[in-house]
Structures are given as C-alpha cells and as structure tokens.
Amino acid sequence: MANNQGRRRRFGSVRQLKSGRWQARYRDPNTGQLRGAEETYATKTDAEVALAHIEADITRGQWNDPDAGKVHFGEYATAWLKDRKLAARSRERHESVIRLHLLPTFGERALSSITTAQVRAWRTKCLERTGEPTVVKAYQIMRAILNTAVDDELIRRNPCRIKGADRYDVPERPVLTVSEVYAVADAITPRYRLLVLLAAFAGLRFGELASLRRRDVDADNAALMVQRSQAEMQTGALFDKAPKSNAGVRPVAFPTELMPDVRRHLDAYAGAGRDSHVFLGPQGGRLRRSNFRDDWINARKKAGITADVHFHDLRHTGNTLAASGASLRELMTRMGHSTPRAALIYQHMVNGRDREIADRLGSMIRKERGDVDS
Length: 374
Description:
This protein is 45% helix and 10% strand. Strand 2 and strand 3 form a beta hairpin. It has 14 helices and eight strands. Strands 1-2-3 form a three-stranded antiparallel β-sheet, with helices on one face. The longest helix is centred in the middle third of the chain and has 20 residues, at 132-151. It is mainly alpha-helical.
C-alpha cells in the first residue's frame, strides 16, 4: 500500500473541459463550496499557475470573492449615497450628478466589469456635451464610490485613474474697480444697493448676505457677524445652513464709509425685528437668486460694464482690493477659508488688523468719491 504520510495536501484541482480549455477549481474560503476560477486557460500549466495565485491570495488574506463585484454600479451608488453624511443641498447635488451623468453609462454594469478605458471613454463623451466643472464633479463622485467599493473588498482596484480628471483650471474672473462697483450700486434697484456694496467691500457670498439678520449687524464697530448661509434646493425650498467649517463663522469689518448706506437700508428695506432678514425680495419675501438675477444684469449693463461679470465676482473684487497690505492668514480669516474659529476672536478682529483692512477699503472709497482725507 502506498504511504501517503507527509505528502502535502493539494490545494484545489484542475480539469479539462469539453471545449479543450482548462479550469481551476478550489474551495471558497467563506462558504467551503467548490467553485471554479473566473477564467479558463489554454493549458493545464496555466490553470495550475492561476490556482497557485488563488491559494497565495487566500493565505495572505487578500482573496476577494469574485461574485462580490457583480453587484451593479447603480445599486451600489444608491446605497453609497444613502450612507453618506451630507448636507441637504450637497445630497441633492450628488443625487443629481449620479442620476444624470453616471447611471446612464454605468448603472447596469457590474462593479468588477468597469475598466479605466471605459471611464476614459465616458469622460470624453461627457466633455463633448457638458461643461468641464460638471464632468470633474461627476468623476470625483464616481471615484469616491469606487474607492468605497475597494474598501468593501468588492473590487481590487479603482478604475478611476485618469491623471488630472479630478480638477480643472478655473478661468481668471474679472475684478471691478471701486468706480465700477459704485456704478453698478448706483444703477441697481435701491433695495439691492447695499447688497452690491457689502459683496464688494466685505467680501461676502450671496448666500451669506441673504441669510444676514438685523442682529448680525454691529453698527458700533461697522462689522457683520457671519453665522450661516442661505441655500436653495432644486424644489425652490430655502433654508439656512451652517458653514462648511468653523472658519465660515466669522466677524467681517466693513468700511465705515458704508454706514450711511447701511442705516438707510435698515430703515427702508430690512425686516422689522432683530431676527428679521436684512435683505428681502421685492415682495417682502426671502431674497432669491432668481428674483435678483435680472436686476443684477440690468444694472451691470446700465453701468456700462460689458464683461460677463457675475455677482460672485464682487467678492473676488473685494478680496483682491483687501489683499494690499494684508497677510495670507488675515485674508483667509476674512474670507472664511481659515481653519481657526474666527468667532472666538471677534473682538481682536474688529479692533485689530481686519479693521485696518476695512479702513484701507474706505480710503479707496473716499478717493473715488473725491473726499479729502483728514
């Protein structure tokens, strides 16, 4: 009788199929069920090499269930989005990008079947029919979904590996002069005059301005306390949201030269109570981009500004003007891009360097108006 003692137990087996090709078979380490390798091979040697690789992956704990990657991208993306902790507006944008730009191409495809070449072809087609910022966002979301699939051990490697596809060069936006800012402010509907001036000389975003309350205006120190930002859903619903980071909550000094405009606006156009909004729409409701856009475009044209200047370019203008003499940290804090909690240093900022920045802007305003500095 043959002595089998000491003989190494063979991992799996190989067999020849009716087609003449060879198949590697092994026990699933999770279920113990016999299963065949995903591919078949032209020679017995090739099948045995593949079997050896599978054994090595199982031994090292690097084996992935080939069936796991068969889940459809659309199904997995839906679950992925549901599990993400996102603000309402961000969730809506993610859902829209996935639905409009990812599911039509990848929705019914198995995760494991998606290749880098397919992702590259999808991106090329997307760029032909929509803007690059949207395509970059779609690529970023797809890469994030598939990164999670890698973490979940559904796929071994993320196919989103296109160099530079996750970013784009933002074109330089126009910067208005102080004279041009005032030309637009003079031309626009009076209820929006202060909106233009604060966007330029306090550097606030539209959403931050739209969410300002009377109690956020510090008339004694010529400063605004930014604590929230208005967001609008695709349904038209408006809500105030917290800033993305602590740096978004911050005091911002504005030139004292704007105080007459601030007082006139509060008297004529703001809501009545301390918690009422500083800026309201033409019918007394919440200010919306949609009920302001036409006024902005008409005022811009009336002021003789032919360039396609967006309202947000006023913030860019203000930050550019403020940059003279301000340090990077001071500018980042003023803009709400710094990591420190600016709200904790309110007194320092109002009485310190931020006031100096605002005063320099005031000097530009006086110079434009022809006032003589004392």
